[in-house]
Amino acid sequence: MVRFVHTADWQIGMTRRFLSPEAQARFAAARIDVVRRLGRLASDEGCDFVLVCGDVFEHDQLTPQTLRRTLEALRAVEVPVYLLPGNHDHLGPMSVWSTSLMSEELPDHVHVLDRPGVHEVRPGVEIVAVPWQGKHPQEDLVGPVLDDLSDPAEGTVRVLAAHGIVDLLDQERRHRAAIPTDVLRSSLDSGLVHYVGLGDRHSRTEVADGIWYSGAPEPTAWREVSPGDALVVEVEPPASGRGRGTVRVTPHHVAAWSFVTVERRVDGDADIDALDAELAALPDKDRVLVHLGLRGTLGLAQHARLEELLARHEDVLGALHRPPQHSDLVLAGDDDIAELGLGGFLASAVEDMRSMAGTGDQPDPEDEAAFAAGRPDDGSSARDALQLLYRLARGGAR
């Protein structure tokens, strides 16, 4: 029996445009910190090695500091580590794997699976590697490697390490290099391999018996399902002859960060209070990235109160991402602005803004913020201006 950690998609060097510089620095550091946690998991579970099925790095243009910090984290892992190049960090003359820093400073127990085919971990344990040679392969990479394999020696455990989408998850047939699931099943049934470890899908996914995506150990987007895990895999070869072995897969949560989607309707103070309480109850707020979508109808005072409490939460959260295309808040009533007793030019401006705010115009979905300098006036910017005017006038009256 062999036991190992299956992980993938570390995406070290990833950036996210909605993060502040301070949050981005912590987010980037977390992608290296999780390597140490994976190493502790391997030691605690008595694993023989760690297998990373592609996309160790987000891209090839990484600073020496990022690479050296990654290598330092890998140096702390007490078992052998096998790194498979994927689509983000594929092999090639400009690859991160071809740099002198990697060749000279890679720890001795860390191995790059840069050759297709069988790599011996120890007698009786083999990894069948399918590394990416370029970013856009035009055909399946896995099938030809399996075709070249001979049967394993009796009692030998073979693990296939591959990267990319399987055809079952590519219903629209967008990927020429999609991996045929039937080929993987056939290889397992015949005993050519005994487990298929995949990378590329950041959500933990069991494709079929013995075929798994581990998902990313630190999440990368709100759309992911069950991210932040690593898999401890136990494989026993068949008792005699060819055929399937025994496979046991146990997920372990290792992530420090989380992506949370909050979509709510707010139509009054009670709804604002509930949203405030929900955001306040989030644990580890400085490592939580909230995608917020709000719809409803609020008075101007309520709208101003909502913006104030969201600004307060934004100061604590890792990020509070509010794409304008996911929000539709309507201003209702004239009483709030009338209470301020504005006159002259301001009163005229208020009427213009109120008229425009009621048009329902939405900003360009590509815009990251509700207001952008130089963007044409629209309903959203008018509502923002009314809120700001209300808050400033109310504060001045005090």
TrEMBL record:
InterPro entries membership: Calcineurin-like_PHP, DNA_Repair-Maintenance_Comp, Metallo-depent_PP-like, Mre11_N, UCP033093_metalloPase
A GO term, aspect molecular function: exonuclease activity
Record keyword Hydrolase present: yes
Keyword terms: Exonuclease, Hydrolase, Nuclease
Domain of life: Bacteria
Region (Disordered): 355-382
Pfam families: Metallophos
Domain Calcineurin-like phosphoesterase: 3-107
Xref: CDD domains: MPP_Mre11_N (cd00840)
Family: Belongs to the SbcD family.
Protein name: Nuclease SbcCD subunit D
The organism of origin for this protein: Ornithinimicrobium tianjinense
Lineage: Bacteria, Bacillati, Actinomycetota, Actinomycetes, Micrococcales
